[in-house]
Write a structure and sequence with these properties.
By secondary structure, the protein is an all-beta fold. It contains no helices and eleven strands. Strand 5 and strand 6 (69-70) form a beta hairpin.
């Protein structure tokens, strides 16, 4: 078994909250790391998901943490694929809730964030959180905020 804890840094990009509408997570700076990943935690569904009531999960990138664009090149991601809108996961069935969805980022931009696109009426909402995992540090060990 090998240690990975000292080579990863977890950053909350969107604290778990009840989501009913489209929104962006906070951008995270990858400086000092050669890899990153975006992870969404989807809680128990508060609404009935279907083709017309759904969430699309998107990964975005930025060089300045001000102007973000959807990551649409599959050469910029690992562990999944993105479409022409940057969507890497669609949640359109109740069975797809209470799950974690993630995608790796290997593109050339300094910042990444997520975008949650809500389609249809989400009257009750669903708890959603997002974390960016920074990996392959230029200097290790990496300390986490929780136990630095």
């Amino acid at each position: 078994m090998q240690d990975i804890k000292n080579n990863l840094k977890f950053v909350i990009s969107h604290a778990p909250v009840n989501v009913k509408v489209t929104g962006n997570t906070t951008g995270v700076d990858l400086q000092g790391f050669d890899g990153g990943a975006l992870m969404f935690d989807i809680g128990d569904n508060g609404d009935t998901f279907c083709g017309s009531v759904k969430f699309d999960l998107v990964i975005q990138e930025s060089s300045d943490d001000a102007t973000y664009t959807d990551v649409t090149a599959n050469t910029s991601v690992t562990g999944g694929t993105v479409d022409s809108s940057g969507i890497f996961q669609t949640i359109d069935a109740d069975a797809e809730c209470e799950a974690v969805y993630g995608i790796g980022y290997v593109g050339g931009s300094r910042y990444i964030r997520g975008r949650i696109i809500g389609t249809g009426t989400h009257s009750t909402g669903t708890i959603v959180g997002a974390t960016v995992i920074k990996g392959i540090p230029l200097h290790a060990p990496v300390t986490s905020d929780a136990n630095a």
